[in-house]
Amino acid sequence: MRPFTSTTTTRAATALIAALALSFTAACGSDDSDDGGDKGAKPAKPAVELPKLDGKKLQVAAVWTGPEEKNFRKVLEEFEKRTGAEVEFVPTGDNTATFLGTKIEGGAPPDVAFLPQVGVLHQFAEKKWLKPLGDSAKKELTKNFSQGWQDLGAHEDTQYGVYAKAANKSLMWYNTSAFETAGAAEPKTWKDFLAQAQLISDSGVEPVSVGGADGWTLTDWFENVYLSQAGPKKYDQLAKHEIKWTDPSVEKALTTLGELFGKDQLLAGGNEGALQTPFPESVTKTFSSTDAPKAAVVFEGDFVGSSITNDTKAKIGTDAKVFPFPKVGAKSPVVTGGDAAVALKDGEGAQALLTFLASTDAAEIWAEQGGFVSPNKEMDSASYPDDVQREIAKALVGAGDDFRFDMSDQAPAAFGGTKGEGEWKALQDFLKNPKDVKGAQRALEAAAAKAFKN
Fold it and tell me: Domain check: are 175 and 161 in the same one?
């Protein structure tokens, strides 16, 4: 393992903030019609050129299951149709780095894999496990992605990854019925968020659904509080372990987070219930009913939309709405994440799939399924199924290179991306005992020092 030291360190998130102050009670007012002329079918777009791979078998691995896997399979089906290849999808489980490392060392890696942590991409590149992008894939990448997203998929000036899937991880999704019944409003500050949560609790509904059984959700809670409160400079320093987790800024952020986690009545199921709730269940708890919701609000990225659409009867824009993560400091935070497609095998098949994943064709097919946001700046935004996702995607693309990437995903996997270890485990212990801020800091620093080796 190694520290994340890429010169492509993520940048300030300010450009996204205003665009993400979304209101979904009305349509965006956009119209796809032309100023006269033929209003029939759109002219066919030139498809990305792909080689014929008749009968060639490929394997692609990613962390996704459930609706996310189902949606991605639509992309693979189109690739198979165009090339004649046969593609098998393999879920990696939460420990993506461990799963892939075992496969690689055993001599049987998948052709293509999606890496959900920047740190893992750099680690794998240093071990010579990744194959550089070929000319066709690089051509699509350069044409369709801003420099910032290109840089995130590179290591030591060599391009390896295509960030085909991104996420805005600074969103609060809420049950409109629960808010209306309680007389609650969309909060803009952390203080007001806690006040609205208490108001909802007083109305008889448990306010905040936390998927604490999946430690990665807790890292996102911390990162949003920390970025808003400590600022981008400190965020970058902590991401690279240039400052310790025993730093006063971390203590302040954990204390702030403890204002929510330390009030049992504000969490759906209390602290113990939150620790036993997987992320998908945290969403269904919030939106399984409009008459008697089990929770009022759930925090996470735009991918929550996929779970709402596929696992509940709630309608986005009416039953389910969203507001930006409340600002703790001077500005609202915006933390982004993403999955980088990389080749683990040489060959025409792997490069063809990466080329397709870097294209607008693949991005538009994926976007049509919902619960997905692409950094692909050239894709047709009309492909998104609703105005909510369209506006979130517009904000992401409109930010250019001006964003901050998920902190835990920049870390070595042993610290930021392993179930039951490192940051995931330390923050789960903190959720169990939010009063022990110092203990959480010591545990976080010990795990970080071991993983970063500094």
Answer: no
Please compute the mean of the pLDDT values over residues 25-34 and round it to a whole number: 36
User: Widest CA span of the chain, in angstroms?
Assistant: 68
Provide the token pair at 192.
């007001």
pLDDT in tens, 351-391: 999 999 999 999 999 999 987 899 999 999 999 988 888 87
Gap between the Cα atoms of 353 and 381, Å rounded: 22
- Shared domain for 340 and 316, answered yes or no, is no
Question: Terminal CA-to-CA distance of the chain, rounded, Å?
Answer: 11
What pLDDT score was predicted for residue 336?
87
Contact 384, 151 (CB under 8 A): no
From the centroid of its chain, how far is CA 106?
30
H/E segment holding residue 209: strand 208-209
Residue 196 identity: Q
29 HSE (CA, 13 A, CB side): 3
Structure confidence at residue 399 (pLDDT): 65
Same domain, 126 and 268: no
**DSSP character at residue 441:** H
Grouping H, G, I as helix, E, B as strand and the rest as coil, residue 304 is helix
18 residue type, one letter? A
Average of per-residue pLDDT across 29-48: 45
Q: Are residues 113 and 158 in the same domain?
A: yes
How does the average pLDDT of the chain come out, rounded? 88
What CATH number should be reported for the domain holding residue 184? 3.40.190.10
* Structural domains of the chain, count: 2
Q: What is the mean pLDDT of residues 88-104?
A: 94
Domain that holds residue 153: 14-22+49-168+335-404
How many Cβ atoms are within 10 Å of 147's Cβ, its own excluded?
11
Q: 429 and 365 in one domain? A: no
Pair 301, 355 in one domain: no
Q: Do both 215 and 346 map to the same domain?
A: no
Whether residue 223 sits in one domain with residue 153: no
How many other CB atoms are there within 10 angstroms of residue 441's CB atom?
20
Nearest to 19 by CA among 407, 405, 390, 406: 390
Q: Mind listing the pLDDT tens digit for each residue in 180-230? A: 999 999 999 999 999 999 999 999 999 999 999 999 999 999 999 999 999
Over residues 298-304, mean pLDDT: 91
The token pair that represents 293 in the structure block: 């919701």
Predicted local distance difference test score (pLDDT) of residue 26? 34
3 part of a folded domain: no
- 3 state DSSP class of 453: coil
